[in-house]
Amino acid sequence: MFDIQEELKKLPGSPGVYIMHDNKDAIIYVGKAINLRNRVRSYFRESTNKTVKIQKMVSLISYFEYIVTDSELEALVLENNLIKEHRPKYNTMLKDDKTYPYIKVTMGEEFPRILFSRYMKKDKSKYYGPYTSAASVKDTIDLMNKLYHLRTCSRNLPRDVGKDRACLNYHMHQCDAPCIGAISKEQYREQVQKALEFLNGNYKEILKELEEKMVKASEELDFEQAAQYRDLLNSVKAVAQKQKITESTGEDKDVIALAKDDRDAVVQVFFIRDGKLIGREHFYMTNVSENTDGEIIDSFLKQFYAGTPYLPKTIMLSDQIEEAELIEEWLSGRKGNRVKIVVPKKGTKEKLVELAARNAALVLGQDKERIKREEGRTIGAVKEIAELLNMPEIKRIEAYDISNMNGFETVGSMVVYEKGKPRRSDYRKFKIKSVTGPDDYGSMKEVLTRRFIHGLEEKKELKEKQIDDEFGSFTRFPDLLFMDGGKGQVNIAIEVLKELNIHIPVCGMVKDDNHRTRGLYFNNEEIDIDKSSEGFRLITRIQDEAHRFAIEYHRSLRRKTNVKSVLDHIPGIGPKRRKGLMRHFKSIEEIKEATVEQLIEVPEMNEKAANEIYQFFRKVTVHK
Fold first, then answer.
1. How does pLDDT run across 591-624, given as a tens digit for each residue?
2. Which CATH homologous superfamily contains domain 253-371?
3. C-alpha torsion sign, points 584, 589, 590, 591
4. Which of the chain's ends, N or C, has fewer CB atoms near its CB within 10 Å?
5. Dihedrals phi, psi of 286, to nearest 5 degrees
């Protein structure tokens, strides 16, 4: 048994990382400290003023562990790694985990290529970026290959020069074909150098060159060629116009600002490379309600820059952070050069931060509207249904449906909605075992009985092990049952629940003659619903989803059974040959129409078996 008070006495006064666990061994918080003894003890002192979030977290701590480090910087790196790996519930978390694209020029090759890359490696290549749009990067690479006629193949040059014919790009005048020696290494390198100047933002030379070529082609009445130059010219202009903000300093920097309300936070980042704004991105931070702006940005910096390979020279922030010097030291060590963290107070730099802050606020406002609409479709719709049925609250709904074809391979489906959204991990499907023939009521009784008996048994087992119900697959019972049908299906469900002494309201989803939802059957009466309401739309979605899930399962069983029932009647055709036939021919119809010679092509077949199949399908008619 872990005695927290005794373990607190053993804590060292060293820098390190502490890890808080709950009674299920889950990591709920990771933190770092200059002095582990002082920091960890502060959580358990009654006199210490704690936020509501920290009070809740401390109440859940079952035990803690710690790792001693040599310095606070080492502790920061370790804390970062542990947070990213375990994503603890009570740490302020960066929601997005993105990898940004780079443009890679393989300068280590004798005939370099321009490639798309998600990672910046320590090799002889040159990297440009990171960029925020993968599509823009690919468009730019495609444009440069067309402009400078660079190779896109992966041939090993000059080793493979002359071994194969030139590809289609050469004949389309989009590559100068170093693979066949059509261009010298020196001439090719000159083209690569022009591409590097383009990536560095020098567009004037290529714009002038393309315009001259376009005019010349037009004067020579080669209008097709002129149109191609015109298109390339427009593409270059489009790339050039994307650089909307330019600074005279020409530095690489990230501009970071925050917008926050009582529940959410958005961090906006502007990526400035060589003095030009190349892109922007926003990130959501969770679990921020009781954090200051500085604390949120502090958490963001640690998590974001732990995962990005490129570090700018300067990071400009909208708010002061306590650990600026420590984070500067960490980032400088990673970059190999000094990284500065600044909070600008005047001039252009301040305006950039203000612009980032306005963008963050805009994203947050738009997101709140989206969330509001989404809540209307989900939580709001559930509230409408609860009011309609005179229920205090509905969190979890389970819906059931039966599918069969003339009693063949009858199946049942269970779909789950929580707070108005599908919880697909809790969906279940049932193959009916005790009922033969088209008996929907009997089938539904079996499905519900199996579902709730399983749940009761699982609850009992978890209780004996002192584990919460939420960790079982069937232990979480719904607040409301939806049955696909009216009075008959509802009565079956009520009967099953009564036999098992389970008290859950049951509601029937009634359809009209066109098989569309028209209302609910509840407490022995049909309730009309406003067809334009979100509640009605949610009921329709749930009913359609239960039907879809059942139908898909039934179809999958039919496909398997159809293959087996036909082929297994043929002498000498067992599971191995059946699988081989279906792999080769894809359908029973193709097998039926195949010749003996075609059947023998299947690796698992021999001539005798092929003849048996051929003769079989000429004696019987296959019904599909």
1. 888 898 889 888 888 988 888 888 888 764 433 3
2. Ribonuclease H-like superfamily/Ribonuclease H (3.30.420.10)
3. positive
4. N
5. -105, 160
